Amino acid sequence: MLILLPKHYVDLSQRLNIADAFQWDKAEFSSMSVRKELFLTNIVHKSFLEVNEEGTEAAAASDTDMANNYCGVVPARFCADHPFLFFVRHNKANCILFCGRFSSP
Hints:
With about 100 residues, the chain is mainly β. About 0% of the residues lie in helices and about 35% in strands. The protein is elongated, with a radius of gyration of 20 Å. The two termini are about 20 Å apart. This is Serpin B6. Pfam families: Serpin.
């Protein structure tokens, strides 16, 4: 299969929309503690996903897989020249490490 993806870089450190968790009178952490005055004061999160000709790099981890499995058959073609969802999956652990939406190739 021939897969054509646009080169792109996605900063995954977007707002988490959890403003209430930072306000002492609105935060709700009762399932974590009996103390009612618990609230967040700071969260630091930085991650990214980059796809280019050399492969894919995500956060501090990098993995590039290349193969040539040509057997004389014309490969199916997928061209991502439109908005799409993407997932980076760890096959051995069977879990999704990153997911996102690419909306403007």
